[in-house]
Design goal:
Helix content: 25-40%
Distance between the termini: 35 Å
Number of helices: 8
Strand content: 25-35%
Order of helices and strands: EEHEEEHHEEHEHEEEEHEHEEEHE
CATH superfamily of the largest domain: D-amino Acid Aminotransferase, subunit A, domain 2
Structural class: alpha+beta
Number of strands: 17
Length: 321
């Protein structure tokens, strides 16, 4: 019997055109992706609306999913319409109104050389109820740890792709931050500027301007990030996209994370450990509380994803259409 603590309400998953019981194990232990991280994935959320569960920005997630597959030299066994249908079916089969959705292309069983010349690409889709990524910290604010390790550089890999193997760096960084008593990690890039969290984009607010960085700073330009930029402008806020110096982050009036898993979460304390020779320095953000623009954007985001803002309904794909 599988422990379901971290996968509440998950009863079924989709694999290669069939629905399987959650407890059924089908991936071979010698699957290429298991050994080398040769997988690509998306993190997607569905939210409850008056018209039933709605998936947030599914076409954009699908577009990136197939882009990532191309970067990994994969030939997907399904097209975008079929992946959309599989995602909707998985949400329905699990009877979920609100959930996190994980589609995954991976090189399966075939050969064990680094080049997966005999490994077919397979598709897996799972969905489960996943509420606030950091629990009560989602409202109260998070403490972050600026790591001494730098983010992988955009010159080394296509940062537009969500490649599974790259995320081992995020896992290690996230564990280090938690070992230091913080809620989450922050990476600087090789240039010494702010890059992103292990799986989140970063915004800062200074003098009323809501700012984030772009791909040139060695980040994945997240779909939630893009949505928040548009929502902020729609609310009459001034926005900017450009490099974020470490000092700018430490001196921000407000700061917050965005991402599918974290949604919109305030950052209220920063521990700077980026220079081991200089020791660690702790800086509060917004006097240790959620700032007003962060709070407004967080509230607006949840109005949008639950279908309460008609002009942003274009971003919703209804599961029961």
């Amino acid at each position: 019997m599988l422990d379901m603590t971290h996968f509440p309400k998950a009863t079924k998953y989709w694999h290669q055109g069939k629905i399987h019981d959650w407890s059924e194990i089908i991936v071979h232990p010698m699957a290429h992706g298991l050994h080398y991280g040769t997988i690509v994935f998306e993190g997607i959320r569905a939210y409850p609306t008056a018209k039933g569960p709605a998936i947030f920005r599914l076409p954009e997630h699908n577009e990136r999913f197939f882009y990532s597959a191309g970067v990994a030299r994969m030939v997907p066994p399904y097209d975008a319409a079929q992946v959309t249908a599989a995602i909707k079916q998985t949400v329905r089969e699990n009877k979920l109104d609100s959930c996190y959705i994980r589609p995954l292309f991976y090189y399966a069983y075939g050969n064990m050389g680094l080049v997966p010349k005999a490994c077919p690409v397979e598709l897996l889709v799972a969905a489960w109820e996943w509420k606030a990524y950091l629990g009560e910290k989602a409202d109260a604010g998070t403490s972050v740890y600026i790591l001494p390790q730098r983010r992988i550089h955009r010159s080394q890999v296509d940062m537009k792709a969500k490649l599974g193997g790259m995320y081992v760096l995020s896992t290690i960084g996230g564990m280090e931050a938690r070992a230091e008593g913080c809620d989450e990690a922050v990476f600087l890039n090789l240039e010494g500027r702010v890059a992103e969290g292990p799986g989140q984009n970063i915004f800062v607010v200074k003098n009323g301007i809501v700012k984030t960085n772009d791909r040139s700073e060695s980040i994945l330009e997240g779909i939630t990030r893009t949505s928040i930029l548009e929502a902020a402008a729609d609310m009459g806020m001034k926005t900017a996209v450009g490099p974020i110096a470490k000092e700018e982050f430490l001196g921000a009036d407000e700061a917050f994370f965005t991402g599918t898993a974290v949604e919109v979460i305030p950052i209220t304390k920063i521990t700077d450990a980026s220079d081991p020779k200089a020791g660690k320095k702790v800086s509060p953000v917004s006097m240790g509380k959620t700032g007003p623009l962060t709070a407004a954007l967080r509230a607006r985001f949840f109005e949008i994803v639950t279908g309460k803002v008609p002009r942003f309904e274009k971003w919703l794909t209804y599961v029961n259409d």
